[in-house]
Amino acid sequence: MNSGKTIDQLIERDSKYPDLSELLRGPTSDNYAKRVSQHEYDFVKENTTIIPSVLSDLIDQLQCRCFMGILPEIKRAWVTIDHRLCMWNYTDGTDLTWYDDQDQIICSVGLVNPRPDIFGDNIKYLLILTTRIAVSVLAVSVTSGPMNDGSDDQITLIATDIAAPANNVTFTQVVGTDEGRVFLVGDGQLFELDYLRQGTWFGRSSDLIVRTAKPYSAYLPTFLRQSPLVEIKSIALDNERKVLYLLSSQSGIEVYYLGANGRDFTPVARNTDILNSARLACRQSSAILDTNEFEIQSIHIISIAESKKIHLLAITTQGIRLYFTHQKDALRMTTTYQQPITRTTPLVVPNALELIHVRLPPSAEASCSLSANHGGPTVLSGQQPNYQLFGVIHAAYYDCGALLAAKTLGQEQQQEDRKTVLLMTSMDLGDYSNQLTGGNNTMGTTTTTATNMSSLSYGNNSQQQQRMTLVETSGIIESDGNVYAIAEANPQKRGKRTMNEITETLSDSPRRFLVLTDKGVTFFKKQRPVDVLQQLLMDTQGDINTHRREFEAFFERYGRVQSCAMCLAIICGNLHNQELVPVIRAASFLFFEFGGSPTAAAVTTLGGNYLGRAIGTSGTTYSGKHDGFALYFARLIAPVWKLKVFENSADRKKNEKQSKFQASLLKAQCELDHLKRFMDANPEFHVSASFGDSRFQSADQGMLQVLVNEQQSLHGLYLLLIHCIEAISFLDFLIDASIQEILQWLPEPARNEVQTLTLESMLSTPRGRVLTRELVIATINKYGAQHIHVGYDIVSELLRRKCSSFFGPSDVAFYRGVENLQRAKKAEAEYERTSALSESLELFKEAADYLTEEKLTEICNDYAQQRFHVGCVELPLERAKKIDPQQQGLAYMEAKNPPGDARLQFYQGRMQCYQLVFHALASVKSLLQSGNTNEVYVAHVFSTALTHNKDKLFHYALYHWFQQKGMMSELLAVDTPYLIPYFKEYVDEVEGMEFLWQYYRRREQYYEAALYLEALATRPNNGLDLQKRMEHLAMAVVNASCRDSKRQQQQESTQLLQNLEHRVTVARIQLRLQQTLESRGGSDNEQGARSLDSQLFDINDLFNKFARHYGVLDEILFIMKVTGHYDMIYLKEIYQTIITQNEKEATESHISPFATLKTRIIYLGDRLYPSPTAFPVDLIVDILEHYCFEHKRQLPTGYVVDSLRSAGVPIEVLLDVYTVSIENKKPTWHGPDEYEYLQHQFQYLKQLLG
Hints:
Blueprint: H1 2-15, H2 20-23, E1 28-29, E2 32-33, E3 43-50, H3 53-60, E4 66-71, E5 76-81, E6 84-89, E7 94-99, E8 108-112, E9 123-130, E10 134-143, E11 154-165, E12 171-176, E13 182-186, E14 189-194, E15 207-210, E16 232-238, E17 243-248, E18 253-257, E19 266-271, H4 274-281, E20 296-301, E21 312-316, E22 321-325, E23 354-359, E24 367-369, E25 378-379, E26 392-399, E27 402-409, E28 419-427, H5 429-436, H6 462-467, E29 472-478, E30 483-488, E31 512-517, E32 520-526, H7 529-539, H8 548-558, H9 560-573, H10 581-594, E33 599-600, E34 603-604, E35 616-617, E36 620-621, H11 624-641, H12 654-681, H13 694-697, H14 701-736, H15 739-743, H16 748-753, H17 759-764, H18 766-786, H19 794-802, H20 809-826, H21 830-846, H22 853-865, H23 869-883, H24 888-894, H25 904-929, H26 935-946, H27 952-964, H28 968-971, H29 979-985, H30 989-1002, H31 1006-1018, H32 1026-1041, H33 1052-1080, H34 1083-1091, H35 1099-1110, H36 1113-1123, H37 1128-1149, H38 1153-1168, H39 1177-1190, H40 1199-1206, H41 1211-1223, H42 1232-1249
Parallel strand pairs: 1-23, 2-29, 24-29
Antiparallel strand pairs: 3-32, 4-5, 5-6, 6-7, 8-9, 9-10, 10-11, 12-13, 13-14, 14-15, 16-17, 17-18, 18-19, 20-21, 21-22, 22-23, 24-25, 26-27, 27-28, 28-29, 30-31, 31-32, 33-36, 34-35
């Protein structure tokens, strides 16, 4: 999905931010942007919670000393009044908690994490109290209040027996690691509180270890211990990198590595020449600075989110910032945009401490005085731009690019002239946006193209990235009193804040800072660009036309795309706030008025166009509205886009983890829903308009296409927006339904894959969709197993109501089908089971285009188990129809399966579906054979398949399956329009005609049956022998003789019968010829006999190629009879040859030739008489009597007459023949003896006549 790829790209780009080392170029920098707008400022003073009056009174009565601090983890400020500790909720000044079990003055207080497996789960923190006598540990239990945001949490202090002697050390700082280690700074030394040491007879259960002293000093009495040569002033702990930094009073810094497990303490490096190095680095600076001005006041950690190369920041008393790395030559390493850091990111062991950059403080001209009531910034009056102006910094806080430092102005001896101000600096995001896009942030900026989203929000020019520098804004505000501590309100996000605040929306909590003074706790909010725009809209009361220049300046500063995204953030973030309706309207007006319009991308020409005219464009440059919408959409979905909801679902804390996931999902869904409401309220923005729309009337063809392209892209994003909302509803349902139980119903491979399933993959990858379906089915199975009679439609009903777009009609129909199938499996009554199965079939058919091959097979297997084989037939056929609606598979087969044809895939897809049908038919046949079903059920299933008259290709495949299974007799009873064409075109010729003549005979269509029988008999070289051909001809005669009701008035049947009878006659001659040749033996005769099997020859071929060629005299005579051909000379030759052959055969057999000759004459007469062409009596009498005359002594009188009479020649015919021979005195009988012989034969004949 292109929209999904767009969102993914935008999320990735938003997450990228240049490493701080890339912005700090050269040895020094002092780039600060000067605010010119009276509405734009980065920090806003919100409110002050004053110290409770009871504490103020006690402070006024102070006898010794008072210390103060902030514990933002539990939202408490603390005050020590001599030996008493009081904590109070700084959000509203209530909930005072006292601890006064100490009898010594409390020097410092620290809140740390407990070591694992020592305290119960209810103990979230440890409170460390230090005096000069002992270091005590209190356990802190936190009970969440109704607000569930920490502002009304209740805390309970629980005394423990953990304490260690302080040995008269005054501790000034307490710091704890994530692993529960506790470090303390006191009297210039670094200590560690070890409260895990087991108590013994000779030792304590806890102790303080001096980490910066020589090892043996721990065993010396206090008065013998030497003062440290280097006094530790403060420490900074990097929990991410497991590094501890120690700042000395001489502005030196030491580095200690705590090990990957956080349990080590290894010295790494020490830098004591920082002041001189900093001064040398500033030699080329316009400011003249001496070494004393680089005295370090505090050190602060640079988080991994901000830089991978720069690790530590030191702030001097004059506000100069010194940046350090603990990696030698770190800046020479290649740096890329920052990516999210995980627990699996390998730690880099520190090996040095190098000063790499000096950043000078802002001048008075660059710093604006911030009012407490959102007033406009002004330059401090009467001040000159020099770095000594702001006095000495005595407190500072830094994290993720934001610096707050407290400075004391005025001379120390003039108490009434002294005042404290706060210097606040942060990155100028407007300048950052300009640098990143190459300064192309004007109102006419083009952003993205339809084919390339690479320029959306950020440029891709690496050279621009390399030229980027750190530009900050700065401001000052006068403090209400002396500043004791500065902290951030949400310490859980320390080091994890996004550096690019331009990506944040109103729903993201802004950064808030706490400044503790002797008057109370003051809250400052860091303004993000979206906050600035909203405040500008509020200050101008939405009057854009009057203040147009200010809004144009804002759009120019941040760019059209970013500004449009901020407008959407303001609109969607305040939908439920009735007081801000004018602001929403004004933001909407800004969005559409200043968002611009799409334009055509670079015009291209083709060389073949001889006029050189532009004939096309490479794409569309989308408007700021389009890209702003896409960008805002991406920012809303980003927190959950790659969230692995099902990952590690078997963890010990899975419920807590899934609750957090669910909360993130629902928060994102709520914000996405607000965006959808905006889109629904402005349908003309994304719904494809008709060409009659007024926007299209004045547009030329090119511009019209540009407008259409943008609307199509917007509509695709809108659909993705809806899918995101509904997909989150689905995930929310799965979490409520118990993911762990649902996973148990998944197949094992899918169960492993689903661990990596994200919202992104669900929406934009085919495999993600498949796994989503598996989850739905698993959920249905889970509910189906729990509910016997009701509840089967829980899942589909929810999908229909809440996920109708993400799960379309086909999806929901499929899932309803699964539910009904489950209901059928659980049904107790047969009618309920049958009803559920039938309903599931109809639903599955609705979703047939949605089914995969695996799912289709699975459903058919379930149907077979339920003895619902009709479903196994109908559903695959419906699926085949859906995957090939244009009958491409049939066209492929009718085209004789051409190789490389694109239609092959449709053919194969259909065949896969048909195989499921055939499997079902074979299964039901097997059930019948095993006696597990009845013939009625089997007939119904087969009838369902055979009566599916709309799928020609299926019928052809089905008939082929019948052939393979030897079920041709069952197929004879089938009446479909595809059966006859199939056997005519796609079956072996002989097999097809064998089937078709039986098919027609079964339906009493005898004429057609006779035609196919005739064709079978007469088709040459079809594998049938002559005997089989004779049988088919005989059957053809029988069928042609039968009464065909359809042809009883036609002459076709009569003509066919006559033709067949003639063919039978000829075929009999061919058969006798074959038998004769076979009886003779010899290779030549055998070859001739085999040739007679190849086809039915006509009478001429039989005469010339076989009878005459092989000398088969009897058949020659018979052919002459049949054809009526008369050749007296040839006949005489034949009969003389017959006599000669007979005499020869008789001699060889030692029998009388006259007996065999008589038999032969009788045989020929029976077959040939009264044919004048094959059995001319006069010619035969003449030849036979001459032969008898030659052997008259061996033969009785009347031999010829008797033989011919036996052959069927009437005596009257013989009388006529003899009469003609005697009366005409034929030349053959010219001799007296011959004539006398003939007279005797004639007299014998007369005697027979009586």
